[in-house]
């Protein structure tokens, strides 16, 4: 056996990952359910490195050095269990099976436990960066045992993206499902980032009256500043693209119904279970959902709104600057919520996740890579047990400086009838956290009134109930 690593499942992500390993000097065993694909990979890209093609699972496993390391790159879902079982049956103590798909972390926990009992390391690994990242350097989020990382880590780090300081965008996230959990939240944040950018675009379009090409220029300018990120960069590309068939801006000929494969939705479902308020991420998921309800939207065409007022040129430029402030402030809050969810998951499942390291490996390769993540790393390095990213002074100061514009942009959106659910939800979260008193006291009173659900007092320990139906004296319960 000569191969250091094997990849099974050679659709675009799998074959790009295999090529990435080969290009870094590793001998890569490759296998696919239909062998034609394996042959075509080797025929087309064989020159890039050393591939060991295998027609059968047995041949594939036999070509691997021990401990064997096999990356499974099949579509997440039911097929995964069958593929895992097929290979697990051929493996021995200490071998490592890696699932590089977007699996649900609970599935990963289940699979890890079952395989651990059979002596096999199962490493659920988040991989971000799409097809391009898989080939040229993704951000990688492996979970699983510490021991598995000793043998697998150096291989993954060699093909991962490198951040500006040269550090590989790959780290051992934590036991069992930790890697897939972190990838899930990455995608939730990705949804929020995309929705916030979408809201900024819509405001520039409807309120500033800019064309898609003009908005592309605005985004290009923003991309030279603190919003510097992959998503802002590609937004400018998409907005400046013109549809060949019609000559119209591409964005105007695409059906405005956003799809989703599920990781953003999971982020919100799990956040609800963990009791973590991820309102900005949730609004991003809901916004995709609303967009897809063509029935509801068709049935709502008669609903009225305010008459839009497009700004003059100077006003529009000033407004665009304010939108930049709003986008930045909302982005800080969306990341705050995502990191809170990772902290809560880590606590719940005993993963001991280093939040600063998570931010560090998102600096390159992944879809949400951004200059901004360096700052998050420094914030967690300075205060590893920060209860919230907003506890960091420099982020708090930036929001303080942005907030007048943030509020004013949202007020304009509301007045003009432009939906900005993620802008508004993130601001409401911020205002809720800083509020001296919340109406939750009233909620407690109502609950006690109709259901004797009891309440706590601000001035004394204990659990109390007021006899609402009687003389309204307070009893300690
Ligand atoms: C990544 C992406 C990747 C995929 C998303 C798309 O990090 O490389 O997040 O995982 O493109 O799953 O998600 P939706 O189809 O749900 O938008």
Automatic annotation (TrEMBL):
<dbReference type="InterPro" id="IPR006115">
    <property type="entry name" value="6PGDH_NADP-bd"/>
</dbReference>
<dbReference type="InterPro" id="IPR008927">
    <property type="entry name" value="6-PGluconate_DH-like_C_sf"/>
</dbReference>
<keyword id="KW-0521">NADP</keyword>
<protein>
    <recommendedName>
        <fullName>6-phosphogluconate dehydrogenase, decarboxylating</fullName>
        <ecNumber>1.1.1.44</ecNumber>
    </recommendedName>
</protein>
<dbReference type="InterPro" id="IPR006184">
    <property type="entry name" value="6PGdom_BS"/>
</dbReference>
<comment type="subunit">
    <text>Homodimer.</text>
</comment>
<keyword id="KW-0311">Gluconate utilization</keyword>
<dbReference type="GO" id="GO:0004616">
    <property type="term" value="F:phosphogluconate dehydrogenase (decarboxylating) activity"/>
</dbReference>
<comment type="function">
    <text>Catalyzes the oxidative decarboxylation of 6-phosphogluconate to ribulose 5-phosphate and CO(2), with concomitant reduction of NADP to NADPH.</text>
</comment>
<keyword id="KW-0560">Oxidoreductase</keyword>
<dbReference type="Pfam" id="PF03446">
    <property type="entry name" value="NAD_binding_2"/>
</dbReference>
<comment type="pathway">
    <text>Carbohydrate degradation; pentose phosphate pathway; D-ribulose 5-phosphate from D-glucose 6-phosphate (oxidative stage): step 3/3.</text>
</comment>
<keyword id="KW-0570">Pentose shunt</keyword>
<dbReference type="InterPro" id="IPR006183">
    <property type="entry name" value="Pgluconate_DH"/>
</dbReference>
<dbReference type="InterPro" id="IPR036291">
    <property type="entry name" value="NAD(P)-bd_dom_sf"/>
</dbReference>
<dbReference type="Pfam" id="PF00393">
    <property type="entry name" value="6PGD"/>
</dbReference>
<dbReference type="InterPro" id="IPR006114">
    <property type="entry name" value="6PGDH_C"/>
</dbReference>
<comment type="similarity">
    <text>Belongs to the 6-phosphogluconate dehydrogenase family.</text>
</comment>
<feature type="domain" description="6-phosphogluconate dehydrogenase C-terminal">
    <location>
        <begin position="179"/>
        <end position="469"/>
    </location>
</feature>
<dbReference type="InterPro" id="IPR006113">
    <property type="entry name" value="6PGDH_Gnd/GntZ"/>
</dbReference>
<dbReference type="InterPro" id="IPR013328">
    <property type="entry name" value="6PGD_dom2"/>
</dbReference>
């Amino acid at each position: 056996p000569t191969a250091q690593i094997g990849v099974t499942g050679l659709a675009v992500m799998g074959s790009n990952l295999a090529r990435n390993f080969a290009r870094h000097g590793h001998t890569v065993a490759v296998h696919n359910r239909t062998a034609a694909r394996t042959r075509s990979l080797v025929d087309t890209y064989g020159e890039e490195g050393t591939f060991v093609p295998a027609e059968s699972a047995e041949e594939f496993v036999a070509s691997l050095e021990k401990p064997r390391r096999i990356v499974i790159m099949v579509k997440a879902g039911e097929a995964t269990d069958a593929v895992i079982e097929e290979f697990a049956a051929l493996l021995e103590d200490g071998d490592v099976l890696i699932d590089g798909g977007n699996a649900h972390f609970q599935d990963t926990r289940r699979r890890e436990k079952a395989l651990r009992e059979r002596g096999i390391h199962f490493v659920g690994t988040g991989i971000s960066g799409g097809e391009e990242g898989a080939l040229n350097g993704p951000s990688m989020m492996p979970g699983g045992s510490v021991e598995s990382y000793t043998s697998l880590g150096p291989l993954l780090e060699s093909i991962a993206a490198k951040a500006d300081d040269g550090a590989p965008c790959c780290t051992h996230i934590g036991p069992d499902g930790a890697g897939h959990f972190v990838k899930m939240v990455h995608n939730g944040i990705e949804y929020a980032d995309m929705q916030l950018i979408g809201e900024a675009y819509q405001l520039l379009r409807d309120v500033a009256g800019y064309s898609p090409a003009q908005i592309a220029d605005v985004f290009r300018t923003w991309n030279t500043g603190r919003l510097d990120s992959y998503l802002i960069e590609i937004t400018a590309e998409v907005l400046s693209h013109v549809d060949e068939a019609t000559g119209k801006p591409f964005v105007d000929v695409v059906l405005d119904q956003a799809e989703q494969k599920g990781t953003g939705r999971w982020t919100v479902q799990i956040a609800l279970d963990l009791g973590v308020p991820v309102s900005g991420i949730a609004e991003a998921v809901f916004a995709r959902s609303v967009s897809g309800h063509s029935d509801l939207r068709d049935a709502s065409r008669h609903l009225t709104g305010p008459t839009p007022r497009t700004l003059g040129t100077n006003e529009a430029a000033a407004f665009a600057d304010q939108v930049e402030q709003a986008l930045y402030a909302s982005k800080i809050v969306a990341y705050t919520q995502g990191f809170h969810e990772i902290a809560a998951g880590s606590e719940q499942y005993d993963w001991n996740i280093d939040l600063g390291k998570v931010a560090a490996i998102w600096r390159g390769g992944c879809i949400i890579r951004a200059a901004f993540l360096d700052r998050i790393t420094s914030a967690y390095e300075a205060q590893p047990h920060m209860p919230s990213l907003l506890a960091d002074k420099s982020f708090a100061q930036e929001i303080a400086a942005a907030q007048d514009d943030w509020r004013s942009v949202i007020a304009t959106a509301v007045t003009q009838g432009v939906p900005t659910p993620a802008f508004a939800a993130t601001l409401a979260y911020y205002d809720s956290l800083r509020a001296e008193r919340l109406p939750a006291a009233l909620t407690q009173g109502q609950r006690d009134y109709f259901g004797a659900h009891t309440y706590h007092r601000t001035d004394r320990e204990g659990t109390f109930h007021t006899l609402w139906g009687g003389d309204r004296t307070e009893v300690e319960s």
